[in-house]
Design a protein that fits this description.
Layout lengths: L12 H4 L2 H14 L5 H17 L3 H26 L6 E3 L3 E3 L1 H27 L2 H10 L4 H30 L8 H32 L18 H23 L1
Antiparallel strand pairs: 1-2
């Protein structure tokens, strides 16, 4: 069974925006998350998730957000609010160790990760990997750097398909992937080793093909069909970089 791609095709203005503009926006969100208080962090995350429905990728983003953020958020709140001892810890209900300061700290950490994750999901869901690579090349980034940044998105779908194929092949040979936790961990090892081996072999083949094509023979590559860009987006990127610089200065001085 073929895995679903991270990219969700669409015709919204966020889909049509230049990948560099969206990437700059994500960077601005990451820096801003270290300034905002925890209620604003969670409200901003909710606003981004709601906006995903406007871009017609709401359920795709929401499912991934819950899958990735829920285990981490629960672990942070349990560890900082209930397990890690604090000076203000007292026992709620007569037996449960509870720290208001620890829970507030967990809300800040969880809120930052939540906001970064929501912004990143909007980016990867509305940006085709090939378009991102084309934007890097159009901006005349070094080919090695642009490929290094875009290749994870280019390869993740292929690895997911390959992992499913390895799983089906191992099941055909009698490997049981269900049952107890111990059995599942043993099955995971049998799936991970061939996946890692094939990934390393594929990486070597790709490197040889790129070298044969003179991938780094020129300082930059020419793009036949560059992603759409305009003066408004370029000014927006400059404005976002100015905001990022001010926020970094605030964080350093403050």
């Amino acid at each position: 069974m073929q895995a679903k791609s991270l990219y969700g095709p669409g015709e919204s203005f966020l889909h049509r925006a230049n990948p560099l503009t969206k990437l700059t926006g994500v960077l601005a969100v990451v820096v801003t998350s270290f300034i905002l208080p925890w209620p604003t962090l969670w409200l901003s995350s909710a606003a981004l998730l709601i906006s995903a429905f406007w871009f017609r990728i709401g359920w795709l983003v929401l499912v991934r957000y819950v899958t990735l953020s829920l285990p981490f958020t629960v672990a942070v709140f349990v560890f900082h609010g209930l397990v890690l001892p604090k000076s203000d810890t007292f026992r709620a209900f007569g037996w449960l160790p509870y720290s208001p300061f620890g829970l507030e700290h967990a809300a800040i950490i969880g809120g930052r990760i939540s906001l970064m994750l929501a912004a990143s999901l909007l980016f990867v869901t509305t940006t085709a990997p090939a378009t991102l690579l084309g934007a890097f090349d159009t901006a005349r980034w070094p080919p090695a750097l642009s490929f290094l940044l875009a290749s994870p998105l280019l390869l993740i779908d292929q690895f997911a398909v390959r992992a499913n194929a390895i799983r089906d092949a191992q099941q055909t040979r009698g490997l049981a992937i269900g049952g107890s936790v111990t059995a599942r961990l043993g099955a995971l090892r049998m799936l991970f080793v061939p996946l890692l081996t094939s990934a390393l072999s594929d990486a070597q083949e790709r490197a040889q093909v790129l070298n044969a094509r003179g991938f780094r023979a020129l300082p930059y590559r020419t793009v036949v069909n560059p992603p759409a860009d305009n003066a408004l987006q370029r000014w927006l990127r400059l404005g976002l970089f100015a905001v990022i610089a001010l926020e970094l200065g605030y964080l350093v001085v403050g």
